[in-house]
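<backbone_tokenisation>
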Amino acid sequence: ICGSREPADHFRSQDSVFSTCGCSEVMLYGSNTAMGLGTRSGGVAYASGGGPAFTAGRAAFAGGRGAAYTAGGRAVGVAGGTGMAGGAGMTDLGPSGGLQLNGGRASGAGLAGGTIRGAGKIIGTGLVQEAAKTVLTSIPGSGCGTPTYDASCCFGGPALNCGGVCSVCCEGAGNMITTSNWLYVGEGRGDAIQKVEYDYEYVGVGAGPYTKEVVVTPYGCQLRRCCIILLSLLLAIPLALVLFYMRSPSAPTPTPAPLPPPPPVRIPVPVPAPPAPPPPPPPAPAPAFGAVGVCTVWGDPHIRTFDGLRADYYGSGEYWIVKSSDVHIQGRYLPTRVTSGLAVTKIVAVGGPVLKDNLLFVGPRVAYWNGQPILQEFPSVFSEPGLVDMKLDNVGELLQKGRDGLKKHIVHIKINDGTAEGLQLQVNRWTQPSEGDYINVKISMHSRPGQDGHCGNFDGDSANDDRLQVRARVGKTGVPQDELLFKTKTPVETANRPNINDCPAKKLDEAKAYCRAQEGGKLIPSMGCLVDYCFAGKGFAMNG
């Protein structure tokens, strides 16, 4: 081969082929090492198998997994060999099929982990001729929140990495455009030609064998503009509803009725304590009860006092029969049609502390307790427990002569006065049509200190029970109005006429005897005759 002037096209053997200087220009080897060392053209060596191709002259081409070495020319990897080296000085192989060079250039399919030393540039398939340049181009708009270098959301299908969200409202935020070395792609497939070594010119698409390798990588995510508008509308709708609701006139709220004003606060005014009531009057001393006595009142009216003196009271009016600190007994004296103007006892009234200020009235036909009629039937009873017991019957002594054979209607009264016997009254009722209505009264009681009245002062001295003396002590006009038990008071004085009650008892007795004789034996002489006899004399009475 070495001496042949014709190039050797192909050598297909499993052995190494070596071409010395001046030998074939081209050597092709199928699987092992090919070397071209000729000096005419520098030699060209091709290794298409797995071995390396080496030339000391111009060019070395290696295919497969071999390496191409050149000492002064180009080294080009035809089929992406493990590495090719070119340049002025190649020192030795790098680890893992790489290259070591000083100031040379290297091109090939890849260094496969080799080490490059020196200032040389890397060119060829898969290698960078110049420093690679990366440009980031963004798509205007707002991002989805990922940084610019993060393309995971929209790279390789947004739905896979963003849960389907990016497929609806997100898109890539921009592209990362990386330009690397010139790439030999074959005639008619590129857009540039090589003018001089390592200098390329753009000649148009499909007009050259070289092209610039460009890698476009999307990065980041941003909202689609249509979604921004849609989201704004979605937010605006509820906001508009809220504003509409706030501004829409609501149903009129009924005005509550005004609360009534609070009641005025009453500030308690200290009221002076009422003056202490005056001490109650000391209770009336319990009467020092004396002996029991009886006083009888009958006729027109004649009175037998407690001390036994008879006294005659002929005048009309209301008078004290018994007056003491606890016993009040009064009688009303009035004439009848048969008494010729002389008074008889018509009603007896009982009151005072002994009856605890209750009132009892007894007359010829009626009886009253505090104004209420009692003893209306014959016979009948009435009782106020602990205070008084009464009964109406026909049992009892006669108190006046000439009553024998007449029907008796007698009222029995017993008042609890603190003594064993009590204060007792017997009232004999007389209602004969020929006489008129009147009563006789008998009083049985213990004497009281200071008592007085028509029944005398019950002091054991009958002389001071004389009518004139009694009238001087208890009054000539009857019971005073403020002490009266009756509702009305009968006038006592008669104009221009003397009062028969002022006639001395002895002279009155003489007048009664004389007048009876003068008037034909009448039982009750006339008042006029008695007054004339008492105050004008016997002669005046005789002249009528």
